[in-house]
Amino acid sequence: MGIRFTILSSGSTGNATVVSNGEHTVLIDAGLSAKKIDQLLRERDASAKDIDAILVTHEHADHIKGLGAVARKYDLPVYANEKTWEELNKQIGEIADDKRKVLQTGEMLDFGTMKVESFGISHDAAEPVGYTFYEGEQKLSVATDLGYMSDKVRDQITDSDVLVLESNHDVEMLRMGRYPWNIKRRILSDVGHLSNEAAGDALCEVTTGRTKRVYLAHLSRDHNLMDLARLTVNNIVEDRFAKDDHRAKLKDTYYDRPTPWDSLDEA
């Protein structure tokens, strides 16, 4: 069985994604309450009892809100790099020593035949990362909370079968929005979030004929719209690849409900 996944929730109110190869299952982030994560898992006929480990991208609340509670309730190991652990220690309560796992950025971790590689990203956190999953020839990459698309991230996620990529905000909506300027400046900076336009430009560089689907993730509820994100990204990609056949299908993510299970066997 190949890789399959569901994005339980995506956005500033909470992030969590489940990735499985049938034998092993991991949770990327736990940015909602343990109760909510259990509910969303049930909506996809899954259970936290099936999870083998939690992988942490960074220490912001929308990624770790339920981390301590979920880890303790289900006795799960938690993987993060050392700098992220320094921040987690202040926020998530006690985690047993044998469940505190250090996965340095760039290191590969094996869950049976499914391999996971972390990679550094640009965001205003201690040492934020994304993750790429491999199962045989299959490749799934998850990259959100990106200030910008660095060369290293571009090289890491290029040629994925399926890609989960941030498309956080529409620049004009953000500029005209209610946030104070210091927050807007942070979001627009190289340690902030990827705009719709930047996501479209990035896809033109990282998708190939192998890439079948791209999930637009971490959309702002205040400064973006699902249809707008999809339209903006699609227009950029269509303009660049008008005569090409390797345009990936764009897929939605949600802050209030999980995406359907997606299998890379179908990619």
UniProtKB/TrEMBL annotation:
Question: Tell me, what's a Pfam family for it?
Answer: Lactamase_B_2
Lineage of the species this protein comes from: Bacteria, Bacillati, Bacillota, Bacilli, Bacillales
Do you know which InterPro entries this protein is assigned to? Metallo-B-lactamas (IPR001279), RibonucZ/Hydroxyglut_hydro (IPR036866), WalJ/YycJ-like (IPR052533)
Q: Which Gene3D superfamilies match?
A: Ribonuclease Z/Hydroxyacylglutathione hydrolase-like
List keywords of the entry alphabetically: Hydrolase
What does the record give as the function of this protein? Counteracts the endogenous Pycsar antiviral defense system. Phosphodiesterase that enables metal-dependent hydrolysis of host cyclic nucleotide Pycsar defense signals such as cCMP and cUMP.
GO MF, one term, reads: hydrolase activity
User: What is catalysed by this protein?
Assistant: 3',5'-cyclic CMP + H2O = CMP + H(+); 3',5'-cyclic UMP + H2O = UMP + H(+)
User: What protein does this entry describe?
Assistant: MBL fold metallo-hydrolase
Q: Which domain of life is it from?
A: Bacteria
Could you tell me which residue ranges the Metallo-beta-lactamase domain spans?
A: 13-191
Q: Which organism is it from?
A: Paenibacillus thalictri
